[in-house]
Design goal:
By secondary structure, the chain is an alpha/beta fold. 48% of the residues lie in helices and 15% in strands. The strands form 4 sheets. The protein has a 3-stranded antiparallel sheet with strand order 3-10-4. It has a 3-stranded antiparallel sheet with strand order 8-5-9. The protein is globular, with a radius of gyration of 21 Å. One of its GO terms (molecular function) is transmembrane transporter activity.
Length: 333
C-alpha cells in the first residue's frame, strides 16, 4: 500500500506539474474550491496560503472549511468535498487513502513537506556542544545525570507526551527497549502547550532538557534542537512498539512521515491549472518552522502566517505558479 501511495503521488505530481507549466491560468475555469483547514498551526497556515493564491492568482472562489485527518479523508471520498486537504499525515491511514486512490476518488497531489514530518527525541544544541556524546542514545544512557529530575534524585528526566497521545505509549516502549527505564523518569507535561513550554523555558535559561517533540512547529523553528541519533526505524517490530501491551519492545524509532496534499479527483479534472499549483507545493521544513516561530512571536492567525510566508519567501512559492499568477498574488499582497 505504501508503494501504491508513493507511485500515485509521483504520477500526480509529474503529470499535473507539466500541465500547469504548459497552460496559462484561466480564472473562469476554477469556480468554487473548498480547502480543509485543520486545527494545528502548520496545516492552517498552508490552507490559508493556498486560499490566497487560488483566490488572487487564479480567480477561484476559494473557501476554507473545518477539517481533521480521518473525517476529512472520509468526506473527500464519500462526498467529494473538500476539494483539497493541504496537510495529511498518512501513516495511520494508508489503507483508507490507498483504496480511495485506487477507486479514483482522490489523488495524491504532492509531498507537502520536503523533509517529511519530524518526530523524535531531542536535546538542545548547547548541551551537545558541551557533551557531543549526548547526540546519541548510548551517550544519553551513560549521562542521565546531566538531566537531573529534582523530584526523583538520582534519575534523569525525560519529557514524554501528554496522557492520551499515542506517542506516550511509543516513548515508554522505546525507553524500555533502549534500557533507559532505570536511568530516566518519564515526565508527563500534562498537555501539548505544557510540553512546548517546558522545552522553551529550559532552552531560554540554557538549562538541560531531554524531550520528545515533533515538527513542523514553532519550537523547532525557534530553538536549535538536536535529534538523538543511534536509533533506527524497524517496520517489522514497530507494531508492538505502538501497543500498550507490547511484552518485549525492541529498539526502534519513529518512522519517516510523508506529509501529503490530497485532492478530490474531480477538482483536478475540472481545474487543471489550479490543481497544477496545488500539486507543486513543497516546502522545506526549516522554512515552515521559521514561519510558525514568527506566527507565535507575533500572535498571528493562520492567515497572518500565510501572508508572512508569501511576502517573505517568494523564492519558495513563485516557482509553483506561472509568472502572471505570481504577479497577481504579489499585487494583492
Amino acid at each position: 500500500m505504501t508503494k501504491l501511495i508513493a507511485g500515485a503521488a509521483a504520477l500526480a505530481v509529474s503529470s499535473l506539474a507539466v500541465l500547469a507549466a504548459a497552460v496559462p491560468a484561466h480564472a473562469e475555469d476554477c469556480g468554487r474550491v473548498t480547502i480543509a483547514e485543520m486545527s494545528w498551526n502548520s496545516a492552517a497556515t498552508l490552507a490559508h496560503m493556498e486560499k490566497i493564491v487560488l483566490s488572487e492568482g487564479y480567480g477561484c472562489d476559494a473557501e476554507l472549511v473545518p477539517g481533521d485527518t480521518l473525517p476529512t479523508i472520509t468526506s473527500m471520498t464519500e462526498k467529494r468535498e473538500p476539494d483539497i486537504a493541504p496537510e495529511i499525515w498518512p501513516n495511520a491511514h494508508k489503507a483508507v487513502i490507498g483504496k480511495a486512490v485506487e477507486d479514483g476518488d482522490i489523488v495524491i497531489a504532492t509531498k507537502t513537506l520536503q523533509d517529511g514530518g519530524q518526530e523524535g527525541w531531542f536535546v538542545p544544541s548547547y548541551m551537545v556542544e558541551a557533551h557531543p556524546e549526548l547526540a546519541t542514545i548510548d551517550g544519553l544512557r551513560a549521562h542521565a545525570d546531566l538531566f537531573p529530575d529534582q523530584e526523583e534524585p538520582g534519575k534523569g528526566r525525560f519529557y514524554t507526551c501528554p496522557a492520551g497521545w499515542q506517542c506516550q505509549i511509543v516513548n515508554a516502549n522505546l525507553m524500555t527497549a533502549y534500557g533507559l527505564d532505570d536511568a530516566f523518569t518519564q515526565f508527563d507535561p500534562g498537555s501539548g502547550p505544557g510540553l512546548a513550554g517546558a522545552i522553551a523555558k529550559a532552552y531560554e535559561r540554557r538549562e538541560p532538557v531531554f524531550a520528545y517533540y515533533f515538527g513542523p512547529t514553532a519550537i523547532l523553528g525557534k530553538y536549535d534542537l538536536v535529534r538523538v541519533g543511534g536509533m533506527e526505524h524497524d517496520p517489522d517490530t514497530w507494531t508492538c512498539v505502538t501497543s500498550r501491551d507490547c511484552a518485549d519492545p525492541q529498539p526502534n524509532m519513529y518512522p519517516p512521515s510523508d506529509v501529503l496534499t490530497l485532492a478530490v479527483a474531480a477538482f483536478a479534472d475540472r481545474a487543471p491549472e489550479a490543481y497544477g499549483f496545488v500539486s507543486s507545493v513543497s516546502i522545506p521544513n526549516d522554512v515552515l518552522n521559521a514561519v510558525l516561530a514568527w506566527q507565535e512571536d507575533h500572535q498571528a492567525t493562520g492567515e497572518g502566517a500565510a501572508m508572512h510566508f508569501l511576502k517573505t519567501y517568494p523564492e519558495i512559492w513563485t516557482p509553483w505558479v506561472p509568472a502572471e499568477v505570481a504577479d497577481k498574488v504579489k499585487a494583492a499582497l
